[in-house]
Amino acid sequence: DEEIGRRFAQSLPRQGIEVKIGAAVKAIRKEGATLKVVWDTPDGEQGLEGQMVLMATGRQPYTAGLGLSQLGIKMDGRAIAVNEHLATNVDDIYAIGDALGKNMLAHVASYEGEVAVENALGHPRQADYHAVPSCIFTQPEIAGVGITEKQAKDSGIPYKVSKFPFLACGRAVTMDETMGMVKMICNAKNSKVLGMHIMGPHASDLIAEGVLAIQLGGTARDIAHTIHAHPTLPEAVHEAAMGQLEGSIHFRRM
């Protein structure tokens, strides 16, 4: 979600982290005991020296050397082609994980493993990806599931956004981790949960409630009318859901 991204970017300078946007890395050079990264910007070439460089350029399917062509397994580019049961075109051969080139996340691969094994054992089950959580284990953490506010706007569906800051969550205050918020995107007509995005303490844990709501077709009313233990971080999710209805109790609408 763009708003979550902006808020996170604003938090980085406080941690001594500088972000360079619109920079295309040209080279990484070893200069004595240091490494120098050189990149191009609209203002010209820039560089920075450091002791270590982390390259985080994403993932790609690793299927080379598996003998797939010899087995006659169909490919989708560099990824293995499978059906909704994660079966390949060759009987009794299934594929999961990054090799599919879809949701390259550890928890998705684990889920796909369960689906593939059940199908292999004769228990039909389809892979369902409509409620996949994404988590970023930064400080503070970021997590999201479902559509973003921009996607909701672009789709043309009537939607409503509610937010609740951790600054107003008692447990977050006692933990001294008040940076961030819970943001909920719901259908404006029936309060069905379409997306949830969190930046803050234990966001990767809290997102599970949003995942379950989307998976089951739940509404903000379902969450708002569910008792949440106090004092806990999930109360922030509860308050965001209340914001979709009559309004949050402990904070004005953001």
TrEMBL record:
Coiled-coil ranges (or none)? none
Q: Name one Pfam family in it.
A: Pyr_redox_dim
Q: Which cofactor does it need?
A: FAD
Would the keyword Chloroplast turn up in this protein's UniProt record? no
Ranges for the FAD/NAD(P)-binding domain?
A: 1-113
Annotated GO biological processes are:
2-oxoglutarate metabolic process
Q: Which InterPro entries match?
A: Class-I_Pyr_Nuc-Dis_Oxidored, FAD/NAD-bd_sf, FAD/NAD-binding_dom, FAD/NAD-linked_Rdtase_dimer_sf, Pyr_nucl-diS_OxRdtase_dimer
What Gene3D superfamilies is this protein classified in? 3.30.390.30, FAD/NAD(P)-binding domain
What keywords tag this UniProt record? Answer: FAD, Flavoprotein, NAD, Oxidoreductase
Keyword Oxidoreductase assigned? yes
Gene Ontology MF term list? dihydrolipoyl dehydrogenase (NADH) activity; flavin adenine dinucleotide binding
Residues in domain Pyridine nucleotide-disulphide oxidoreductase dimerisation?
132-241
Q: Which family does it belong to?
A: Belongs to the class-I pyridine nucleotide-disulfide oxidoreductase family.
* UniProt-recorded name of the protein: Pyridine nucleotide-disulphide oxidoreductase dimerisation domain-containing protein
Q: Where does this protein come from, organism-wise?
A: marine sediment metagenome
